C-alpha cells in the first residue's frame, strides 16, 4: 500500500464523526417518536487552512497546489531539462547552490519568508538528478516555513526531502518534532524509531521513544471513550422511534479474550 493511500484511510474517530454527522443531517426530529428524512443529504467538504496565509488567498489555492507560491512542478522541470546540454545543467546546479547559500544567510538573519522564496527558486533551478542537494533545499525550506507558522507545508517539505534521501536524519528529526507538535504521535514515534536505526546514538530519539508510547496509549483510551459516546448517541437516534435506547443493551467485555457480548434488557435499570 502506498503512503498516499495510507494517508487517505480514515481513522476510527473520523469514521464515527462522519457517520454521526451524516445521520444527524439526514434526519430531523418531528416529535419525540417520529423521525422524518430531510429533503437533502449534505456532506461538508473537509478544509485545510494554513493560518499564516491570507484567508482569501487560501480559498484560491487550497484545492490547487499548482497555484501556491512555493509549488514545484517536477513534471515541467523534467520536460524542460530535456532540451538542456550537460553544461547548462551544470550551470543551473551551480546557481541553485548559490541560492541555497543565500537562503541560509537569510535564515540566519531572521528573513524567514525571504528564505522560503529563495529555496523555492533553488528547487526550480536545480536539475532533478541532484537528489541529495534537492533534499537539502526541501529540508531547509521546511525549517524556514516553521518560522513563519506554515506547519503543514513544512511537514510536506520534510517528507519530500526524505523521499529524495531516505537516510536524511535531520529531515526525519524535523518532521518527528512537527508531528508531535501537531498531535500526530504515531507518525512521530515512527520517525524517531527510524532515526534510532540511522543514528543509534541519537539521545533525543531515545527519549522520544520513552515519552511517546504512554501519550499514545492515553490518547487512544480517550478516543475510544469518545467514540463509544458517539456510537451511543447514534444508536439512541435510531432506537427512539421504537421506544428503546442503548440502555436496553448491556455491553459486557470478556476479561479473557477482550471481546464484547451484547445482552438485551427489556426494562433497563433507571439511573
Automatic annotation (TrEMBL):
<protein>
    <recommendedName>
        <fullName>Tetratricopeptide repeat protein 1</fullName>
    </recommendedName>
</protein>
<dbReference type="InterPro" id="IPR011990">
    <property type="entry name" value="TPR-like_helical_dom_sf"/>
</dbReference>
<dbReference type="InterPro" id="IPR052769">
    <property type="entry name" value="TPR_domain_protein"/>
</dbReference>
<feature type="region of interest" description="Disordered">
    <location>
        <begin position="252"/>
        <end position="271"/>
    </location>
</feature>
<feature type="compositionally biased region" description="Basic and acidic residues">
    <location>
        <begin position="41"/>
        <end position="74"/>
    </location>
</feature>
<feature type="region of interest" description="Disordered">
    <location>
        <begin position="28"/>
        <end position="74"/>
    </location>
</feature>
<feature type="repeat" description="TPR">
    <location>
        <begin position="169"/>
        <end position="202"/>
    </location>
</feature>
<dbReference type="Pfam" id="PF13181">
    <property type="entry name" value="TPR_8"/>
</dbReference>
<dbReference type="InterPro" id="IPR019734">
    <property type="entry name" value="TPR_rpt"/>
</dbReference>
<keyword id="KW-0802">TPR repeat</keyword>
Amino acid at each position: 500500500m502506498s503512503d498516499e493511500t495510507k494517508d487517505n484511510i480514515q481513522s476510527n474517530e473520523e469514521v464515527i464523526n462522519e457517520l454521526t454527522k451524516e445521520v444527524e443531517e439526514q434526519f430531523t426530529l418531528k416529535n419525540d417518536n417520529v423521525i422524518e428524512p430531510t429533503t437533502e443529504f449534505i456532506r461538508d467538504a473537509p478544509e485545510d487552512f494554513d493560518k499564516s496565509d491570507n484567508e482569501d488567498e487560501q480559498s484560491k489555492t487550497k484545492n490547487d497546489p499548482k497555484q501556491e507560491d512555493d509549488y514545484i512542478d517536477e513534471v515541467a522541470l523534467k520536460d524542460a531539462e530535456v532540451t538542456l546540454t550537460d553544461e547548462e545543467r551544470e550551470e543551473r546546479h551551480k546557481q541553485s547552490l548559490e541560492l541555497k547559500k543565500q537562503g541560509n544567510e537569510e535564515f540566519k538573519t531572521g528573513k524567514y519568508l525571504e528564505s522560503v522564496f529563495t529555496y523555492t527558486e533553488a528547487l526550480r533551478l536545480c536539475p532533478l538528478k541532484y537528489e541529495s542537494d534537492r533534499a537539502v533545499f526541501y529540508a531547509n525550506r521546511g525549517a524556514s516555513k516553521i518560522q513563519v507558522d506554515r506547519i503543514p507545508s513544512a511537514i510536506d517539505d520534510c517528507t519530500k526531502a526524505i523521499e529524495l534521501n531516505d537516510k536524511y536524519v535531520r529531515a526525519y528529526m524535523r518532521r518527528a518534532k512537527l508531528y508531535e507538535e501537531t498531535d500526530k504521535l504515531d507518525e512521530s514515534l515512527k520517525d524517531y524509531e527510524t532515526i534510532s536505526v540511522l543514528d543509534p546514538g541519537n539521545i533525543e530519539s531515545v527519549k522520544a521513544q520513552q515519552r511517546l508510547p504512554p501519550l499514545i496509549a492515553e490518547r487512544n483510551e480517550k478516543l475510544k471513550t469518545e467514540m463509544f459516546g458517539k456510537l451511543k448517541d447514534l444508536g439512541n437516534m435510531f432506537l427512539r422511534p421504537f421506544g428503546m435506547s442503548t440502555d436496553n443493551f448491556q455491553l459486557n467485555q470478556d476479561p479473557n479474550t477482550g471481546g464484547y457480548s451484547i445482552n438485551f434488557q427489556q426494562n433497563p435499570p433507571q439511573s
